[in-house]
Design goal:
single chain; about 180 residues; mainly alpha; Rna Polymerase Sigma Factor, Chain: A; Arc Repressor Mutant, subunit A; 2 domains; 7 helices
Length: about 180
């Protein structure tokens, strides 16, 4: 078993309880990264635990538990985020590739220095508005600190697609940051 994996027999209540205890903080952080709401993140983790428990006895020995439970939380978070977007006036926006192409960033284009906490809140707010799959790859790369290869495996996408999504997401973040500052990107 890998580090952080339950010591009880796979499929047992003790193993599940151990998995929950070992990964609770990480799972809530993943949900919070998508939803930006503590109560909703806790609710998502609880819902994910219920879904995971229903499948627990059928999980094979070859399944790595941490990535598996993280995927359940991530999927539930994305579903919840999408429902929230649909309930919002105007609904979800359709994701279209950026027709402007690559955005060049010169040092002279750098925004004026801001309070780091304010910058962090602005970036988090922008990430919260990114459409899928851009939002997921940013969270997986910069919050969960997964490698490109791990992201590709988790999302069942080709490595090139993951890199393209991440590049486009960063471009959108930069463009929106410049727009909020009243500057041209």
């Amino acid at each position: 078993m890998s580090m952080g994996e339950p010591e009880a027999p796979r499929g047992s209540r003790e193993a599940f309880d151990s998995l929950v205890l070992v990964h609770a903080d990480r799972l809530k952080a993943i949900a919070y990264a998508y939803l930006k709401d503590d109560a909703e993140a806790e609710d998502v983790v609880q819902t994910a635990y219920l879904k995971a428990w229903k499948q627990w006895s059928t999980i094979g020995q070859s399944v790595r538990m941490r990535p598996w439970i993280e995927r359940v939380v991530r999927n539930e978070s994305v579903d919840r985020w999408r429902r929230r977007q649909l309930e919002r006036p105007g609904g979800m926006s359709v994701d279209r590739p950026d027709p402007a192409g690559s955005v060049a960033f010169e040092e002279s284009d750098a925004p004026p220095r801001l309070d780091p906490q304010r910058q962090l809140r602005e970036v988090q707010g922008i990430i919260a508005t990114l459409p899928e799959p851009y939002r997921s790859v940013v969270i997986m790369r910069y919050v969960q600190r997964l490698s490109y290869e791990q992201i590709a495996l988790e999302l069942d996408e080709p490595l090139g697609t993951v890199k393209t999504h991440l590049c486009r997401a960063i471009r959108r973040i930069r463009t929106q940051l410049h727009g909020e500052m009243g500057e041209e990107p």
